[in-house]
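call fold(seq) -> tokens
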Amino acid sequence: MNAVWPVELADGDTMLRPIRLRDHRAWREVNQRNRNWLRPWEATVPPTPPGHLPPQRPTYRQMVRHLRAEAHAGRMLPFVVLYQGRLVGQLTVAGITWGSMCSGHIGYWVDQAVAGRGVTPTAVALTVDHCFRNVGLHRVEVCIRPENAPSRRVVEKLGFREEGVRPRYLHIDGAWRDHLVFALTAEEVPEGLLTRWHQAQPGTPHK
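ret:
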């Protein structure tokens, strides 16, 4: 294991590690149990043009193999999120671009049963610190539908900067949806995002 990928990141009860084929049963149970919670925010495929066959939804095995290949190519960091040792969600850094940009974007989902316990902010903070300190990215962004209040609270708690709206940016839940863009650059969190998150917690002394 090198310092970039594959890698495990942890803080307290929250841990991230690479998604595995053998996670299938746990991943499916959490994903299916949270169908109503996740559906409004999940990517969908736009209507197929006339004369074209509609794409088939990949199987779990196909998804994991694709994520692994992208990770080894340096274009993605596909994690599962664990809380107290149990798989509770997924977090992926995708669209990693090098050269003069050195940027990527984060997407995540988490079991509704652990929402509000700080799991997602901790996972995002761990990931951003890894991206800046070890991977070598300069900028990380998160794009969120304006209606997705729980996800917006995550980036607001962490101090992401809101940059504006991307109209009809992604096909989500059956239609092209506007997204708000939130971003951070490495210079904005010299102390580390996890440190900032810990210092923001009630009862934590600020240095």
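The domain at 9-45+56-199 is CATH 3.40.630.30 (Aminopeptidase).
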